[in-house]
Design goal:
Gamma Fibrinogen, Chain A, domain 1; glycoprotein; two-stranded antiparallel sheet; single chain; about 15% strand; nine-stranded antiparallel beta sheet
């Protein structure tokens, strides 16, 4: 009986221990199964949650709207009626732009005046110092001369004094010796020191004159022949590419624009063919030749190659570049602006996204993006996020209303303030990241299109991505962003 009891007790203890090792799972057949915990939202994994959830639109400031800066383009005048004359732009040629206000354009030389003025600024203070030293020396010399003359007269008078005044003469003689010592020190010490200083000043002037002579020789060599530039800039210029188009600049190439009268002109590429032209290229990716993993200041100022010549004598082919957030912001805040985003995959297929309203705020707001009124074939990623995602995961990929972020300036919504969770650092470039993206035009460039997380630096979809067209893990061959002042077609 005792053996049966012990055996039964061992079985009970063993069953209890086995039950305790099941990690608290309930295997009772009659008990209801415990529902699985809801999957945590992972902004970097892009794992869809329940399709029953809907994304939440992101509140964003409205883009600049209203009446456009330009009226509808004039139609071609009927035969027999005078057409609108194009503005004539004088061409001086060489290094001088047609318009005096546009300044010097030739990048290879002919800047002798600038070099001379720069040297003049360095020489003028030295010459002024030399003049001061000469004046001081002259005053000292005059003082000593007058003093010696007076002493000579005084010595003559002293010689006339009678021998009875010997004591008085001795006193004056001592005083005269003191004065003589002063004069000797001035002649033996002060004068040589001043002369030495003057010699040093003269040596400096001689050195600077030699530099000027070298600069003149160098500039003479450069200007021996007419200036030749790798990218001749057309005479016609304007506030933007639309203004240039209306002035007759109908060829797609590099131009100079100046949105404001007091602003220094800068180079841009104008697309004067696509969808009626007038487009100013603000972003371009073609071949991965330019690194877009840049700092905040680089994206602020702009970087890359505007355009290059492929043998036609002018720069008709755009390069890879980012215009600069300051310039993009200025252009879009001058009035209603639309944006055209064109892209191409590695099979040659092309799609586009066009938004009739596009505004980028200034740096104090970290260049907040405001965009609206989509049309096109690529998919509305800016306003709707990635359609392959659901619920909050999709909301996390909306770009409208986001601030601009770079790897050294984290403004995204993925755990703000946590340096280990930065979209720009992981996704390869500066952009209006949320948590993180459905479009990543400034990401890392991958040849061939498809890539994997094992190829990515941080295991994330960091390529040139437009998810609503090609999904994640496909890097586009080419993508460009172009803006134009919005005006009604009719």
């Amino acid at each position: 009986m005792s053996m049966k009891f012990l055996l039964l007790l061992c079985l009970c203890v063993g069953g209890a221990l086995t039950h305790g090792n099941e990690d608290y799972d309930d295997y009772d057949a009659e008990a209801k199964p415990t529902p699985a915990p809801k999957e945590a939202i992972d902004p970097r994994g892009h794992r869809p949650v329940s399709r029953g959830e809907v994304y939440i639109p992101v509140a964003a400031p409205p883009p600049v709207s209203g009446r456009g800066r330009y009226r509808t383009r004039p139609t071609t005048a009927p035969t027999g009626q005078p057409q609108e004359e194009k503005e004539e732009q004088p061409d001086h040629g060489g290094c001088v732009h047609a318009s005096e206000t546009m300044g010097v354009l030739c990048p290879t030389g002919c800047e002798l005046k600038t070099a001379l003025l720069k040297q003049e600024r360095n020489v003028k203070p030295t010459v002024a110092q030399l003049k001061r030293e000469v004046d001081a020396l002259s005053q000292t010399s005059n003082s000593v001369y007058r003093y010696v003359t007076d002493m000579t007269t005084e010595v003559t008078e002293r010689q006339k004094i009678s021998d009875g005044n010997g004591q008085m003469v001795s006193q004056y003689t001592d005083d005269l010796e003191v004065q003589h010592a002063f004069v000797k020190e001035a002649i033996d010490v002060t004068f040589p020191q001043n002369i030495k200083i003057l010699q040093g000043v003269l040596e400096k002037i001689r050195d600077k004159i030699q530099r000027i002579e070298k600069a003149i020789i160098a500039q003479r060599d450069k200007c021996a022949e007419p200036c030749k530039v790798s990218c001749p800039i057309p005479v016609v210029s304007g506030k933007d590419c639309e203004d240039i188009f209306r002035k007759g600049g109908e060829a797609s190439q590099m131009y100079l624009v100046r949105p404001e009268l007091l602003q220094t002109p800068y180079r841009v590429y104008c697309d004067q063919i696509t969808q009626d032209g007038g487009w100013l290229l603000v972003q371009s990716r073609l071949d991965g030749s330019v690194d877009f993993g840049r700092r905040w200041d680089d994206y602020k100022r702009g970087f890359g190659n505007i355009a290059f010549d492929v043998g036609k004598g002018y720069c008709e082919t755009p390069g890879e570049y980012w215009l600069g957030n300051d310039r993009i912001s200025q252009l879009t805040k001058m009035g209603p602006t639309e944006i055209l985003i064109e892209m191409q995959d590695w099979t040659g297929a092309k799609v586009y996204a066009r938004y009739q309203q596009f505004t980028v705020q200034g740096e104090p707001s970290n260049y907040i993006l405001a965009i609206d009124k989509y049309s096109g074939t690529a998919g509305n990623t800016f306003l709707e996020g990635a359609k392959e995602l659901f619920g909050q995961n999709r909301t996390m990929t909306i770009h409208n209303g986001m601030m601009f972020s770079t790897y050294d300036r984290d403004n995204d919504r993925w755990v703000p303030g946590d340096p280990s969770k930065q979209c720009s650092r992981e996704d390869g470039g500066g952009w209006w990241y949320n948590q993180c993206h459905s479009a990543n035009p400034n990401g890392r460039y991958y040849w061939g299109g498809a890539y994997t997380k094992y190829m990515a630096k941080h295991g994330t979809d960091d390529g040139v991505v437009w998810m609503n067209w090609k999904g994640s893990w496909y890097s586009l061959k080419a993508i460009s962003m172009k803006i134009r002042p919005f005006f009604a077609d009719k």
